[in-house]
Specification:
This protein is mainly β. The protein is built from no helices and 28 strands. The strands form seven sheets. A four-stranded antiparallel β-sheet has the order 2-1-28-27, with no helix packed on it. A four-stranded antiparallel β-sheet has the order 3-4-5-6, with no helix packed on it.
Amino acid sequence: MVLRMTVILMALFVPVSVASAAGPPQEQWNRTFGGREADYGYCVQETSDGGFIVAGATASFGEGSTDAWLIKTDSSGVKEWDKTFGGLAGDLAYSVQETSDGGYVVGGVTGYYEAGGADVWLIKTDSSGGKLWEAIFGGPGQDYGRHVQETSDGGYIIAGEVRDADLGLADVWLIKTDSDGNRLWDKTFGGTGDDYGRCVRQTLDGGYVVAGSTASCGNGEVDMWVIKTATDGEEEWSKPLGGARGDGAAAVQCTPDGGYVVVGYHRAEGSTWPDVWLVKLDLAGNEVWSGTFGREWAEYGCSVQATSDGGYVVAGHTVSYGAGNSDVWLVKLAFGKGSRVGLWVGVGFGVLLAVFGVALLLGSRVLRAGEQ
């Protein structure tokens, strides 16, 4: 039996008030993109024309074993164009954002199959996906760019990890560039264990907040880690969060009150499998509240957005619910109503966009030979 992976893009309508919701969100449409080999979608953003831009990786198209893949669709998910980037070694695009000039900035990794090690990869394109320039950062170890954001000065901030080639340990890596991709500064955060950066946001004061995981500090084997820096990348504070078991963060967002909301996973004492974990922090990084969501098997939170009713919507993946081995999971949370709406669809992991009550999910799906 031949199996292949394909990118799946799905739009859902999410009622902004859980109290008035008659049931789970309803699917508006879904689209798949891919060929005969494994193809993955890692990030999706709405574009200024009402369409969507998707970043991922493809083994079906391009030059190498795996190439970075950029897909532009209209508002209905119909593909307008796609571009591949890469050489003969493995290349991936983990993050994409539309930039102020109407083009796109892509963050990822290049050369992860090469003997010399993977490097952080920054690509700037025009509005049609044509490459304007690229910048590569790294050393002899395995270095990854996980998330990129355009900054208020027109440059870019990248979060990921840098791995020491001799010791084999990873540190959180924060890289600041100008508008042409030239490095202005970079900072590492870490200790005697493996530490990973997964998401970065520019904060209201012009600094940055980074979310990831740490095995160097905290209470357990691995802890969720949130780092706040000044505009020059100097650490202002850092907070490890978690218990005696494994915990980690996948995404962080700034909240209207000046604080932060972080989503990831938490493994409770005595539990084999993790649950989705949502943590609210104040401006100084102090925990305001936290909640876990899951059942007897593994659940992970991958993305979070604040909603117009003051709640949150979380996307991730679940083994406990749904129809398959691992299903995309969308959870809507509201305060003071004592309820949540859950939806599980597809197979893979989810990345989320929540705008005006519409959620967009991105993941991957296993198809058997001959299945459309």
